[in-house]
Specification:
Number of domains: 2
CATH topology of the largest domain: FAD/NAD(P)-binding domain
Shape: globular
Radius of gyration: 22 Å
Order of helices and strands: EHEEHHEEHEEHEEEEHHEEHEEHEHHH
Helix content: 25-40%
Structural class: alpha/beta
Oligomer: single chain
Number of strands: 16
Length: about 425
């Protein structure tokens, strides 16, 4: 039997790989070569359209725990991220192009996967995973609405600008990690109080691009920095421009700091950390060049804002990412109501494994709720239908430990329990079969 995977982003690529490694024949549909969304620029699979960071690798962070679980479960996408990682302190940042190229080649050369470069306009018959992402084309979106009802939701997401490394003035900017923890992987642009005040005033008065939809709903994790600034003069100082731990020297403590993160292995491009934006291009150029060290910044890619579409997950799918109304149909990725790169990968892995089991008449498997992957699936299936919002993985989704412990040990206890739960799960469920 052949199954369909619609969309070759992070979730679709992972789902296709998990199906193929279980000897399932896959038709992987991807429309990018013929019809890109406005946020896409590469032809390859698993394109990272926003940040190039998959967030923390630390087990003291739920995203780090989820990545550790995915490594145990043989995630193709995490394998690619590790292979093409860039210096980024405790974070896992990647070279976008090499990362995408690797995944594209792995899936294209897999004998169990047939690549079909076509747009899918309607929900396909037969076993299918829909992982078309937050910018699903209008025709398929309409088909999904008809299937699940009108309960499609959305928020707006923003992308940060990327600048050319050679255009950074390193006489002003400097390398440093916060509190000197780990390697000095970030470039820092310091501001005095006067420079910050002038910058802040320019930001709050800057022109933004028009949003066509009636209401602007923005996911807090990707709040445009100009919207953040409008919440108050000091808001950026506790967010992306936080100066704490970034002093150049004991006698040279900045009032604010803009951080730049390496964006490719050649070290020729850097993105502005936390600078997701929907300012007009001319305003972006003007305001970025107000930052000390970036007076002559050459902007390679401007920030843009785009609409993220997602289904009301608890009303539409279960913990297997299986549609409640059609058992051979699964959803994965941000369209399924998860938020974040790593979370999308995890959803694709669960959907791929369970669709493989479904077509082989095996019972579907529920990932342990004590794990990061399982707690996300549990949230997706059981959150409030009336107030559902996508959410990054976090320790707040994990069940309580249930025993006395020191607060400072809590995160590591969660992490250890999660990894032990995944090990037991893999053994009990014979996960590779």
């Amino acid at each position: 039997m052949v199954v369909n995977v619609v969309g070759a982003g992070l979730a679709g690529s992972e789902a296709a790989y998990q199906l193929a490694k279980r000897n399932v024949k896959v038709k992987l549909f991807e429309s990018k070569k013929n019809k890109k969304t406005k946020a896409q620029s590469l032809n390859g699979f698993a394109e990272l359209v926003c940040s190039n960071s998959l967030r923390s690798n630390s087990l003291m962070n739920a995203a780090g725990v989820m990545k550790a679980e995915l490594r145990k479960l043989d995630s193709l996408v995490i394998k690619a991220a590790d292979k093409f990682s860039l210096p980024a302190g405790n974070a896992l940042a990647v070279d976008r192009e090499l990362f995408s190229n690797y995944i594209t080649e792995e899936l294209t050369n897999n004998p169990n996967i047939e690549i079909i470069n076509e747009e899918v306009k309607d929900i396909l018959p037969g076993p299918t995973i829909i992982a078309t992402g937050p910018l699903t084309h209008d025709s398929l979106t309409s088909s999904i609405k008809k299937f699940i009802g009108e309960d499609m939701l959305y928020f707006f997401d923003a992308i940060a600008p990327v600048i050319e490394a050679d255009s950074i003035n390193m006489d002003i900017a400097y390398y440093k990690s916060r509190y000197d923890k780990g390697e000095a992987d970030y470039i820092n642009c310091p501001m005095t109080e006067t420079e910050y005040t002038n910058f802040y005033n320019a930001v709050v008065d800057a022109k933004t691009t028009a949003i066509k939809d009636f209401e602007l709903k923005v996911f807090e994790g990707c709040m445009p920095f100009e919207e953040m600034a409008k919440r108050g003069y000091k808001t950026l100082l506790f967010g992306p421009l936080k100066p704490v731990g970034l002093a150049k020297s004991e006698d040279d403590k900045p009032f604010a700091v803009v951080q730049l993160r390496q964006d490719n292995l050649k070290n020729t491009m850097y993105n502005l950390v936390g600078f997701q934006t929907h300012l007009t291009y001319s305003e972006q150029k003007r305001i970025i060049r107000m930052i000390p060290g970036l007076e002559k910044a050459n902007i390679i890619r401007y920030g843009i804002m785009h609409r993220n579409t997602y289904i009301n997950a608890p009303n539409s799918i279960n913990e297997f990412y299986q549609a409640r109304k059609r058992e051979d149909l699964f959803f994965a990725g941000q369209l399924a109501g998860v938020e974040g790169y790593v979370e999308s990968i995890a959803s694709g892995l669960i959907a791929g494994i369970n669709l493989a089991r479904f077509i082989n008449n095996k019972p579907l498997i529920k990932f342990p709720v004590n794990s990061a992957i399982g707690s996300q699936a549990d949230y997706i299936a059981n959150a409030s239908i009336n107030s559902f919002q996508p959410m990054n993985t976090n320790f707040g989704l994990f069940p309580e430990l249930g025993f006395k412990h020191k607060k400072k040990e809590r995160k590591m206890l969660y992490a250890n329990r999660a990894l032990e739960a995944i090990d037991k799960f893999m053994k009990d469920e014979k996960i590779d079969q």
